[in-house]
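Hey all, quick one. A colleague (J.T.) asked me to put the zinc ion job into the tracker so the inputs and the structure tokens live in one place instead of scattered across chat threads. No bug as far as I know, just bookkeeping. Sequence used:
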Amino acid sequence: MRLTIRRPDDWHVHLRDGAMLAAVAPYTARQFARAIVMPNLPVPITTVEQAIAYRARIEAAAGAGFEPLMTCYLTDSTDPQELVRGHAEGVFTAAKLYPAHATTNSSHGVTNVARITAVLETMQRIGLPLLVHGEVTSPDVDVFDREAVFIDRVLMRLVADFPNLKLVFEHITTADAVDFVDAAGSNVAATITPHHLAINRNAMFEGGIRPHAYCLPVAKRERHRLALRKAATSGSAKYFLGTDSAPHARSAKESACGCAGVFNAPFALESYATVFAEEGALDRLQGFASEHGPHFYGLPLNTGIVTLEQVATAIPDTLQAAGEAIVPFLAGQTIGWRFGGSEVDDDAAGRV
Ligand code: DOR
Ligand code: ZN
């Protein structure tokens, strides 16, 4: 069987910088027309100038035909005027809220959302979406509860205080998050990763410690995975594709203190297609991958198409990136779909 959908976008990806960027950007550009690029570089992207320079490096690494959509990393001292300028100049598509110390390169993140009230007021006014890493960071909160506690302690209030703020709850991992997003207004949406649709927390402990299944927010119980699958395949416009592909060298993952992140870009669409096929919802993949995101962000749909073929595909154990081995999601496994390439012409999408 062969599936054709309008060219999709990845609404949440980590492309890194330097040699790693050069190695990983082509995987994302091969499958997606656009991507929302996370700003959590070791020196985070906090200014319009940094974003313009980073965008140029991404374009050079990804090649023609791929559009990186840039985000601003929010800190306690973000100047609202920087966002206004970046938005007006077409540089910032969104701004990212990392609670300080929640994850990789988040030490400059926001220590308390009360400190960025003026920023959020401005974003609400100009229509710049807020992308949220939704986890509390208090060490006294169990790591598996951090998303649910974030909803109660932070998100409920934030959404109430800024009722017209466009907000994307990124990489949701719990039934609690699905309930929250379902109940919220149309200004609130969520991205869902392929790995959180495919694995539950057992995957991190299958016969031993499995660092390549570790990411943040961490995978949760099976009942949560099932709630995510239901949401993603429901047809609801509130849910869209965001891989959270987050490459780290194998040596940095297989360590006494391994980095968080799953590198799923090389087989992203194949992974999502597997889930949608298992759920009997292949007819809804196009909405999730190619339509709901642009509608939420107020961007045009892509022209062109991609095809997916139902053919057994072996995923390699490792790939090479920046002179190091890197382990892709589902390494060593065989999945039932193969990416068949894309056509970018204007009328191709009319045929789907
Ligand atoms: O697992 C993750 N890896 N979660 C994040 O939020 C950040 C990401 C990264 O940058 O490595
Ligand atoms: Zn991420």
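Adding what we noticed when we looked at it: Residues 146-161 form the longest helix (16 residues). The longest strand covers residues 67-73.
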